[in-house]
Amino acid sequence: MHDEVQVTRARVRSTDVLVVLLLAVVAARFLLPGAFDGAAVRAWSTVFVAVCLQALPFLVLGVLLSAAISTLVPPSFFARALPRRPALAVPVAGAAGLVLPGCECASVPVAGSLVRRGVTPAAALAFLLSAPAINPVVLVATAVAFPDDPEMVVARFLASLAVAVVMGWLWSAFGRGEWLRPPVRHGHTAGTGRAAAFLGVVQHDLVHAGGFLVVGGLTAATLQVVVPRAWLDAVADEPVLAVLVLALLAVVLAICSEADAFVAAGLTSFSLSARLAFLVVGPAVDVKLVALQAGTFGSRFAVRFAPVTFVVAVAAAAFVGWWLL
């Protein structure tokens, strides 16, 4: 009961902040009309609206599919479908992300459920990394965001799948049981059916992912308008630095994978290889994922898994980008 009160209060505070921000924007629009008429502001608003409107349909579809997977498909299905040997289970679990979509927020609890039901951790972690990165919604969104560069879809798929499989095999070879805290089973509220659970997940994930989409759109628009073009060109002209900068930007922004392609498409100063790093690193390791992983598997796991994942993701993106792009 106490936890429910705390959750309710947290939601009220978040809603209050959102309302205050919206009222401030509306008030500024009427009190300072001239401030919104400049060419830079118009360009900024155009980029921001374009990013959000392009990504919104894919974000909604991805949330619906993710909610269906997490609430309607029993986790025991995955345990029966995967091979018992970790060396074989890892690539199978990684490939399952192609047909079993889910966003980052959903893949962590699903992976926790797999571990709790006896699936080898290496396979569960491979699924955790692949599901938000190579599912059909993400690949279609990438194709729409890069209509003139269809090779970006293939590059994203290969690099992201490689990250999932390599990290699964690395955990199988070097991971220790004491680093991975067994996930705690959370009971369901009595009388809650699957339909109610599905709607609850959709509502939570849509608000959560939509907020990160807005942050990503704001950042992409700001980079295009506020940051001097010479600065962006200076970073973008250095291949290694450009890859590292966009990889770190993906970690900080923590954009939902259904929407990150449209943000990457707006970073036109950077090469395709650098933007590929943004797309590969984001769904594999970012600030919200590290927090989710620490809460599900423990901090000892997160502080080891996240840095190695970042290095593997950057290396995979750099290699695939050099090869295909």
Automatic annotation (TrEMBL):
Keyword annotations: Cell membrane, Membrane, Transmembrane, Transmembrane helix
Chief location of this protein within or outside the cell: membrane
Residue ranges of the TM segments: 12-32, 44-67, 88-110, 122-146, 153-174, 206-227, 239-255, 301-324
Domain of life of the native organism: Bacteria
Pfam annotation, one family: ArsP_1
GO CC annotation terms, alphabetical: plasma membrane
Annotated InterPro entries: DUF318, UPF0718
Topology versus the membrane: Multi-pass membrane protein
Compartments reported by the entry: Cell membrane
Similarity annotation: Belongs to the UPF0718 family.
Designated name of the protein: Permease
Organism: Klenkia taihuensis
